[in-house]
């Protein structure tokens, strides 16, 4: 069955094209800073938003037309695999991501759920072999089911902890089966509703316990995978422990997990934390922990995770600059954790939305590469921190100075003069790079 008859393959046709189903900026084999765009960007499609999201919102019923839906959950699941790979091939996207519950019906017991996962991942495996498409990451959904109301690893109920552990084990088994390159933990319910009844220390200790079990298990099954924490400050819980990049790093350091974990950063989660996306990426890079990104954008007028497809080239330029600074994002990638708006309910919108996101990131990549080639930020920062290049600054960086020696220096040089940063000029020059 042909789920996306609108196009055989989405091709690059350049910015002037009027063809809706063509790339206007993303050209897979165009070289940018020594790699093809495809290698630089490592795009992934998210199973949940693309295959299972129905367009319902708190005020309205499902609206999305999805031609793979049937009344039989297992048949629907199989149709989704077909449609998903058709979409990926047509978009020329090399990677995908999923939660366990996205791909297979949960059935009436854990055993049935696992059996369904086995059957569907057999099918996915065949499709992966056929197409060369790879698994960027998978994860266990430990937030939707009512049993996770009070958290998964952080639940007050030890049986819930055990159930979560079983889901993680299965997640790692399928990661090995499908050659997953990363494995994500997003702690949607790992937080609290009220501190009045919460043992924060025990809850965080238990999250670390589950992570350590996961590391131990991958060693046991000899599966090399990069673990990732995905920070988010709130939603669904009032407070989530992995609040932002800096908080997640403090957690990883406290529990000695930095060798096995990096961060999967999402643009809209940064917004919810009161940060820009580039702030989160920069923090991660400072800790050498930039693992992967969930690409989307929020709405500054709305206080929730709207998961819009990224279309803001200013943001993707600054994000791609951080990624280039990082020397690339592999083994991570750029996962479209984005969903179509409710009014974009047709099948073809799935193509159009991904094309929009890919084009926006391609523009960001090109602009970021130019900024790097021109040493735009390098020169700017070099100049701004020039006082550390020689004299007292160089000695401070050399760790030769003490409070006493600096007091002596300051007494003799108390006529400090700063230079203007000309920030308005900098911002207006940056605008010239947006393409
Ligand atoms: C939700 C998260 C989720 C993770 C995977 O806000 O972004 O989709 O990426 O569990
Ligand atoms: Ni996400
Ligand atoms: Ni999100």
TrEMBL record:
Keywords of this entry: Carbohydrate metabolism, Cytoplasm, Isomerase, Magnesium, Metal-binding, Xylose metabolism
InterPro entries registered for this protein in UniProt: Xyl_isomerase-like_sf, Xyl_isomerase-like_TIM-brl, Xylose_isom_bac, Xylose_isomerase
Compartments in which it is found: Cytoplasm
GO biological process: D-xylose metabolic process
Enzyme class: isomerase
Binding-site positions, Mg(2+) 1: 230, 266, 294, 337
GO CC aspect terms: cytoplasm
Catalytic activity: alpha-D-xylose = alpha-D-xylulofuranose
Gene Ontology molecular functions: magnesium ion binding; xylose isomerase activity
Superkingdom of the organism of origin: Bacteria
Domain Xylose isomerase-like TIM barrel: 101-280
EC identifiers of the protein: 5.3.1.5
Residues where Mg(2+) 2 binds: 266, 269, 305, 307
Similarity comment: family membership: Belongs to the xylose isomerase family.
Official protein name in the record: Xylose isomerase
Native species: Enterococcus termitis
């Amino acid at each position: 069955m042909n789920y996306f008859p609108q196009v055989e393959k989405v091709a690059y046709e350049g910015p002037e094209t009027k063809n809706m189903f063509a790339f206007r900026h993303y050209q897979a084999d165009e070289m940018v800073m020594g790699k093809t765009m495809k290698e630089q960007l490592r795009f992934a499609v998210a199973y949940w938003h693309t295959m299972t999201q129905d367009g319902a919102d708190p005020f309205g019923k499902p609206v999305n037309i999805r031609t793979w839906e049937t009344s039989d959950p297992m048949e629907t699941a199989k149709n989704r695999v077909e449609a998903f790979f058709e979409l990926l091939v047509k978009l020329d996207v090399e990677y995908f991501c999923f939660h366990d519950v996205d791909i297979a019906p949960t059935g009436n017991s854990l055993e049935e759920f696992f059996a369904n996962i086995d059957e569907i991942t057999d099918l996915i495996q065949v499709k992966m072999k056929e197409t060369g498409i790879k698994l960027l990451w998978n994860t266990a959904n430990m937030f939707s089911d009512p049993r996770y109301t009070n958290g998964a690893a952080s639940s007050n109920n030890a049986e819930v902890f055990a159930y979560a552990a079983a889901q993680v084990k299965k997640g790692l088994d399928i990661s090995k089966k499908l050659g997953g390159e990363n494995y994500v933990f997003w702690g949607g319910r790992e937080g609290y509703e009220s501190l009045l009844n919460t043992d924060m220390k025990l809850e965080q200790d238990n999250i670390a316990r589950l992570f350590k079990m996961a590391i131990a298990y991958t060693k046991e099954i000899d599966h090399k995978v990069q673990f990732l924490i995905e920070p988010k400050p709130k939603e669904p819980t009032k407070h989530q422990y992995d609040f932002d990049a800096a908080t997640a790093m403090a957690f990883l350091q406290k529990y000695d997990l930095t060798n096995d974990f990096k961060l999967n950063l999402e643009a809209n989660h940064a917004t919810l934390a009161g940060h820009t996306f580039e702030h989160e990426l920069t923090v991660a890079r400072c800790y050498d922990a930039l693992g992967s990104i969930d690409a989307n954008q929020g709405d500054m007028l709305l206080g929730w995770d709207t998961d819009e497809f990224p279309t803001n080239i200013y943001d993707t330029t600054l994000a791609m600059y951080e990624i280039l600074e990082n020397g690339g994002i592999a083994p991570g990638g750029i996962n479209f954790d984005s969903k179509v708006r409710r009014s974009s309910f047709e099948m073809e919108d799935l193509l159009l939305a991904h094309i929009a996101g890919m084009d926006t990131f391609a523009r960001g990549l090109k602009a970021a590469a130019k900024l790097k080639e021109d040493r735009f930020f390098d020169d700017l920062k070099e100049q701004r921190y020039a006082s550390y290049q020689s004299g007292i600054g160089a000695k401070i960086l050399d760790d030769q100075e003490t409070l006493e020696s600096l007091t002596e220096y300051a007494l003799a040089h108390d006529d400090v003069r700063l230079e203007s940063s000309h920030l308005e000029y900098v911002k207006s020059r940056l605008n010239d790079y947006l393409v």
